[in-house]
Design goal:
61 residues
């Protein structure tokens, strides 16, 4: 459980840094995401979730 909390904290740190360092680019990216279909966003999200799972599986293996 402790590792999950650390992982969520790290996610917040990375997300916050992106908005702090690149605020204009992040706004543009969010506007561009409105033009992407929900199914493409879902597919991309699943792809990155699987990549993350594989990385964790290899490291924890």
């Amino acid at each position: 459980m402790k590792e999950l909390i650390v992982a969520i904290g790290l996610l917040f740190v990375i997300e916050g840094l992106l908005y702090t360092i690149f605020p204009t680019q992040m706004k543009k990216m969010l506007q561009q995401m409105q033009n992407i279909s929900a199914s493409n966003l879902r597919t991309g999200g699943l792809f990155f979730a699987l990549i993350g799972f594989i990385i964790i599986w290899i490291i924890k293996g």
